Amino acid sequence: MQTRDFDIILTHERTDFDAVASMLGAALLFPEALPVLPREMNRNVRDFLALYKNHFRFVTVDELPRGKVRRAIVVDTRAANSPKGTQPDTEYIIIDHHAAPAETTATSETRKPLPNARDLWCDATGANTTLLVEKLVERGIVVSPVEATLLALGIYEDTGNLTYSSTTYRDVAALAWLLEPDRRVNLSEVNEFLHHPITAEQRALLQTLMDHCEFLDIHGHSIVISTAVAPTFNGELSTLAARLRDFHEPDALFVLIDLGDVMQVVARSTTDAVDVGKIAEALGGGGHNRAAAAHLRGVTLDELHDRVVVLIKEYSREAGTVRQIMSVGRPQMLAPDLPIVKAGELMRRWGHEGFPVVAIADGHEQLLGVLTRREADRALDHHLGDLPVHRFMRTGQVSVRPDDSIATLRKVMIESNWGQIPVIGESGAIVGIVTRTDLIKLWDEAASPNRLAAETAARLKRVLTPVQHQLLQVIGAEVDRMNYAVYVVGGFVRDLMLDAAAPRALVSRDSLWDFDIVIEGDAIAFAQRLQALYGGRVVDHKRFGTAKWQLDRSDAPVDLARLLGDVVMSEGTLTLPIHLDFVTARTEFYTEPTVLPTVQQSSIKLDVHRRDFTINTLALCLNPNRWGELIDSWGGLADLHAGLVRVLHSLSFVDDPTRILRAVRYEQRFGFRIETRTLELLRDALELLDRVTPARIRHEIERILQEGLPENALLRLDELGVLNQLHPALHMDALAAQQFARLRTALAAPDADPELNRHPLALLYWAILTYPVSRPALRELEARLGLRSETQRLMDSMHVLYASLPLLAAATTPPSQVVAVLDEVVPVALALMPVVCADEKVLSVIAQYRAQWQHVQADLDGHDLHVLGVPRGSIYRKILADLRAGRLDGTVGSRQEEVALARRIAGLV
Questions:
Q1: Do 269 and 288 fall within a single domain?
Q2: What are phi and psi of 279, to 5 degrees?
Q3: 508: which residues sit within 8 A by CB, 6+ positions away?
Q4: How does DSSP assign 528-594, residue by residue?
Q5: Which one of 61, 126, 723, 889 is separated from 745 by 20 to 30 angstroms, measured CA to CA?
Q6: Could you tell me if residue 104 is inside a domain?
Q7: What sign does the dihedral 43-44-45-48 (CA atoms) show?
């Protein structure tokens, strides 16, 4: 019999619609390849093919021709049984949407990853069929209605009708293309085969599984494990798993079946916190995080059960609790007899949508209900502001506790229809509040506080010195003993997370002691506790709830041995900071634009909400049992990943217009961009800069000039009209940017001018920026920004030099005139001229002045003039100046000539 080389298309056993639809897609893309149906297929797949097989080119293994398999296209798996004809040199193309599986275990079925994978199409889509449909669209391949229906079945089934969390927009787009009129998908058939009735055999096994369900609580998740022995069962199990899941509604379900010659595992999950895909991989199977399967040999059902329990514990994260998402601290509460108009004022001031209504009886709080903003507004619309709160509140004692699960919270919210649920502590007092918004934020499980805890803890260990790490751990432990919570917030956390989120960013490592530490509790009491235990001195500010723990006081030494424990400080390691600042978590509101805010004690969630941009709202918990938890209440981590500078609310720039300058500083420092809406708000608030005090504007400009590349921020400020708003004469252009860079090069040179190194770099930048500004404009700038005297002197000197360029460049200008000008200039201005001036004649004259002319003096002095009989008075200054000018210009060359000239000027001859 004649043999030939040929190509085949393969997939996994127990084939579902996604696998067989992927085979169809591959057959359309590779028309010369033979799609080989596995021996074991799910019943709904078999039944579909029984009706429509003639519309496809599928073959069985037995129908393959004799010969060598030149190439195998493997879909929806990376490990498939190789049929006859495959050779060691057979090439493989793998088209798979699953993550690469772990190595197979000793107990797993003997299917090894395929060798010689010449090509790999792999991407994270909900259905593998989507990858094939995208290629069909790209190549303009026509599909028939029956083919389109099978492809649609593959996408619908593997995405749970587009409801699984693994579903992507690409799955939706692929399905939308299939549903276009030209393809004519038969949705009646789709519905029929996705909801296929179970057989009597399946029904009997389902009853056995129902009778043998084990209910576990693992890491706060409800887990169902159902087992059965069914050696004669030959049906499909995934449908039974779906029915069990729908009936019990667990967080995760594991069906373990002893089929006699093999153990079958089918796993389903409703949460990313229980990753059944990884569990199946560890068993030698595969799938994704919400649906997976495995089959094993050589183990008993009991052994498999125990192994699955161990793997669930290993590959599951702790379930979220109310404590992790609630706003800690006593919320604003209303007395039942408070007038509605007063309640409305509080709601507008604090921006809350609801307040608990509480009565005090015998010294104890009694929760009566909650008043929402909608109810308050409706009462006010009806002019009922004088009536008491209890007339309009929602009554009931609805509450949760900090350790209640998120599932419990959801149930309470659904049953009560309250959007703000008070959180009750062990004493029965209200210790916080949790809202619908807090719950919605958990839709993105990547923002779950403990999701990145291990990774963040490892990063802390890597970035901090041993002393820093130990000190933060001590702070966390002592806070815990006071039943407080402590967080590092702001810039330190942002820069810590930038390593992973934005490698392009320039992350500062120069101020690792610049910890912004926020206490949910009494920061002053906490600092005093540290002082009592370890020494140092505390300076507190009760009005703001802040405390400074001073660690460098000789009159109040710190017990280093007790504080640092076994930490060994090597040579050059940072020891302790001069001080650490502790801040009580607080919220704030602005009574007027641009004025300083009114503050009040609050929670970490509301504390970070008063900050400028989302990327600065990240908080890192230091309590021992929550070490490394990242609190991301306002989407800061997502904006770090996206490279966006975004304000937290639309009045942010109105409340504090200096944020305009900070927005640009962060944008340029990290290579980010200001988010579109934020940019609109920034432009709208420019005029408010006129109302900000000079000191605050100056501070922000100084911060910009301290950046690594300040010219980038200044160019952006000029582009946005910010510099012009500060003063029309303030301008940054490409020439000034080049001069900034030239200054850094000059400072880094081995022969750098020592005069430049004696002054702050920011001051030198400012001198370059204002070099061409007129003197009247300089006076206005000085007043607008409250510039210091040193800065004013340098600006005046730079202006003198700028105005004197023609004089300095003229070949006929005598040295005495040059000296008369340059003597009025501060030395650092002269050192800056090679940076801002390209005229070699000017630079040569300045160099000669600095090297020679400034040192030239007349031999005669005031005493000599008195001896000559010159009457005392202002004439002395003129004579000495003329004598020096004569020396400089060469008209006077000796002491005798100076005497003669002095006598002539004084009229003594």
A1: yes
A2: -65, -45
A3: 495
A4: HHHHHHHB-EEEEETTTTEEEEE---TTS-B-HHHHHTT----TT-----SEEEEEE-EEEE-SSTT
A5: 723
A6: yes
A7: positive
Is the sign of the CA dihedral 714, 719, 724, 726 positive or negative? negative
Closest CA to 858 of 817, 835, 878, 886: 886
Q: 109-158 pLDDT, tens per residue?
A: 334 445 555 567 788 888 999 999 999 999 999 999 999 999 999 999 98
CA–CA gap between residue 826 and residue 19 (Å, rounded): 80
How far apart, in whole angstroms, are the C-alpha atoms of residue 900 and residue 895?
Answer: 9
* DSSP assigned state of 773: -
Q: Which of 555, 522, 521 is nearest to 537 (CA)?
A: 555
How far is 522 from 773, CA to CA, in rounded Å? 51
Among the three residues 651, 671, 703, which one is the final residue of a domain in this structure? Answer: 651
Which residue is it, tokens 């379900």? Answer: 253
Residue pair 116/138 in contact (Cβ under 8 Å)? The answer is no
pLDDT score at 102: 43
DSSP state of 108: B
Rg of the chain over CA atoms, in angstroms? 39
Q: Say whether both 646 and 497 belong to one domain.
A: yes
- For residue 198, the model assigns a pLDDT of 77
- For residues 77 and 190, state if they share a domain: yes
Residue 891's region, left for phi above 0, alpha for psi from -120 to 50, else beta, is alpha
Pairing of strands 630-631, 619-621: antiparallel
Could you tell me if 538 and 425 lie in one domain?
Answer: no
CATH number at residue 350: 3.10.580.10
The answer to whether the Cα torsion of 654, 655, 661, 664 is positive or negative is: negative
781 and 826 housed in the same domain: yes
How many Cα atoms occupy the beta-carbon half-sphere of 165 within 13 Å? 17
Q: What is the CATH number of the domain that holds 802?
A: 1.10.3090.10
SS (H, E, C) 849-876: HHHCHHHCCCCCCHHHHHHCCCCCCCHH
* Interaxial angle between packed helices 43-52 and 145-158, expressed in degrees from 0 to 180 and rounded to the nearest 10: 170
The answer to whether residues 419 and 530 belong to one domain is: no
Q: Give the pLDDT confidence score for residue 558 in this predicted structure.
A: 84
Q: Which residues of the chain have pLDDT under 50?
A: 1, 102-113, 446-447, 500-511, 570-573, 589-600
Which whole-number Å values give the CA distances from 793 to 703, 730, 798, 817, 831, in the listed order? 21, 18, 9, 21, 15
Residue (of 45, 52, 59, 96) closest to 74 by Cα position: 96
Reported as half-sphere exposure (CB side, CA atoms, 13 A), residue 184 has a value of 6
Instruction: Please report the pLDDT score of residue 595 as a whole number.
Output: 46
Q: Which tens digits make up the pLDDT trace of 233-270?
A: 877 788 888 888 888 888 899 999 999 889 999 999 88
Domain annotation covers residue 678: no
Q: What pairs with residue 117 in β-bridges?
A: 92
3-state class (DSSP) for residue 906? helix
- Does the residue 308 lie in any domain? yes
Same domain, 25 and 150: yes
Comparing CA positions, the residue from 116, 113, 87, 117 lying closest to residue 101 is: 113
Q: Are residues 462 and 534 in the same domain?
A: yes
**496-531 CB burial, b ≥16 within 10 A, e <16:** bbbeebbeebeeeeeebbebbbbbbbbbbebbebbb
How many C-alpha atoms does 701 have within 13 Å on its Cβ side? 24
- Whether 660 is in a domain gets the answer no
Q: What is the domain range of residue 26?
A: 6-194
Domain count, the chain: 6
